[in-house]
């Protein structure tokens, strides 16, 4: 990478020579010289700023695609930390960068999101909000550092980010809309690639409806869904889709009852839309028992 361009330093220091100092004081008091000097200084400053801005713009344009691609890949590698989903997307905004000690540090606000089909919508059901991050790139590779949690958060932000970026890091939520737009654009491209049309949204857009059953029974079902055969079924009334060995399966939860009791049915449909399996549980008050399995 190119080294940083340092602007010239402006100095008003006098020399140690008394004659030189006397001459310079006279020049300062000479208004004609002052106006001419000020005009030349202003012109030089304008030219320097123009050249500096042009160089800065060029360097930013050249570095951005490479940095964006690098951060994109690093964030997608974070998927293993979250629940399994069909498609993984990321969003990031680079606040700035610094070169030091043969390393480049990119200061950014990041977000990741996992998408899957629920009730026919492509929903972001896993991931993170807007999180400040520092991406360090060196000859040995690249790594991401996030702020510490809890009471250590504020101090770690101040340690990780240069002063000029601290306020933006603390205000990372201001980038939520832009990050969400980036993730949804990637999700849209994925839908095109599989020839599928669906509304893209978040879990709250889904407006899930939960079975109106006894709270104790609901907790029992939640515990039961840790079972390998039940954990993919949605807790809400509706459907969720998963890819299994490249084939798409749909898991449907149906509820027929009220707070007093009823039947909750779990159905699994194969890639052809035909029912592959069914399990039915009877809910009575706070008790739950299986009454049918196929």
List the helices and strands and how they pair.
Layout: H1 18-29, H2 31-76, E1 87-100, E2 103-118, E3 121-127, E4 131-138, E5 141-145, H3 153-160, H4 163-170, H5 176-193, E6 200-202, H6 203-206, H7 215-224, E7 238-244, E8 247-258, E9 261-269, E10 275-284, E11 287-293
Parallel strand pairs: 3-6
Antiparallel strand pairs: 1-2, 2-3, 2-4, 4-5, 7-8, 8-9, 9-10, 10-11
What is this entry, summarized?
The chain has 294 residues and is an alpha+beta fold. It has seven helices and eleven strands. Strand 7 and strand 8 form a beta hairpin.
Give a verbal description of the structure.
- The model is unreliable at 1-63 (pLDDT under 50).
- A hairpin with a 2-residue loop joins strand 8 and strand 9.
- The protein is α+β, with helices and mostly antiparallel strands and 294 residues long.
- The strands form two sheets. Strands 1, 2, 3, 4, 5 and 6 form a six-stranded mixed sheet that branches. Strands 7-8-9-10-11 form a five-stranded antiparallel sheet.
- The chain folds into three domains: 18-63; 67-204, no CATH class; 208-293, no CATH class.
- It has seven helices and eleven strands.
